[in-house]
Design goal:
256 residues; mainly alpha; 2 domains; two-stranded antiparallel ribbon; two-stranded antiparallel sheet; 9 helices; 6% strand; elongated; signal
């Protein structure tokens, strides 16, 4: 069995899970497709994902029913017709479900049975490993697996959007008018986006009398301090998500 390292940091320890505002609906779609994969592979007595979800018809809960089971508001949340489906869209899911009132929080112990002691990173790892276990038990519908992968990719992308916007706002409080640039890098075999400090400094140097190397050191010192803590935390989460994507792209025996 091949293992992909996931850093189970102290981030997000809580009974309620909350991703970034841009990412959380995609995260819920990911959990939902994982739920469907588990339902297809295991009997009800051996299920962990949204284990209390009971469909009004058929054998699989709709996305609305899934949210009512797992969201913090529970059955009192306000759903919309777009969620009455077993195939929730991934592209532009944030726009599709923007009218849904559900607080953007979920109960970890409802997403995962007996998950009270899990943080959101550990939860995502458990769910991903459950998909892998299902793949070992039987051949999984390729559309379900593809949708799960696509949703997890969207989670990573939307988290970066949130991280970038927040960081640039904080950065410009100190360095007014300086635009940040990003780039893609590989960390432990996982591709993630990071701030391109070299380009950021070079572009700003071309607009001013300052030297690029001087600006680069100044910016890097800023991000290494307390101002960059949230950025670093979210980079760790992004690396974890990228690792989980690697797991799903590998053979079924691989685990996070």
């Amino acid at each position: 069995m091949r293992l992909f390292h996931v850093f189970l940091s102290a981030l997000c320890w809580a009974a309620l899970g909350q991703a970034s505002q841009r990412a959380i609906i995609f995260e819920m779609v990911y959990y939902y497709y994982a739920y469907q994969i588990e339902v297809a592979a295991f009997p009800e007595s051996d299920r962990y994902i949204a284990y209390e979800c009971s469909p009004a018809t058929g054998t699989v809960c709709t996305f609305n029913e899934f949210l009512k089971t797992t969201a913090a508001e529970g059955k009192s949340l306000s759903v919309i017709p777009a969620g009455d489906t077993t195939s929730p869209p991934i592209e532009d899911a944030d726009k599709t479900f923007s009218a849904m009132k559900w607080g953007h929080k979920y109960r970890i112990n409802q997403v995962w049975k007996d998950g009270d002691d899990l943080n959101h990173v550990a939860l995502s790892a458990r769910v991903t490993n459950r998909i892998q276990e299902a793949r070992e038990v039987r051949t999984i519908d390729k559309n379900l697996l593809s949708s799960a992968k696509e949703a997890l990719e969207a989670v990573q992308a939307k988290r970066w959007e949130d991280n970038f916007v927040h960081l640039e706002q904080e950065f410009q409080k100190r360095y007014e008018g300086v635009s940040l640039y990003d780039t893609e890098t590989t960390v432990d075999g996982s591709k993630i986006k990071v701030i391109d400090w070299v380009k950021t400094a070079a572009v700003q140097a071309s607009k001013s009398s300052s030297k690029s190397k001087v600006l680069l050191k100044r910016y890097q010192d800023w991000i290494k301090g307390s101002n960059g803590k949230q950025y670093r935390d979210h980079l760790a989460i992004a690396q974890n998500i990228a690792s989980l994507r690697n797991v799903l792209d590998a053979e079924p025996s691989c685990r996070a």
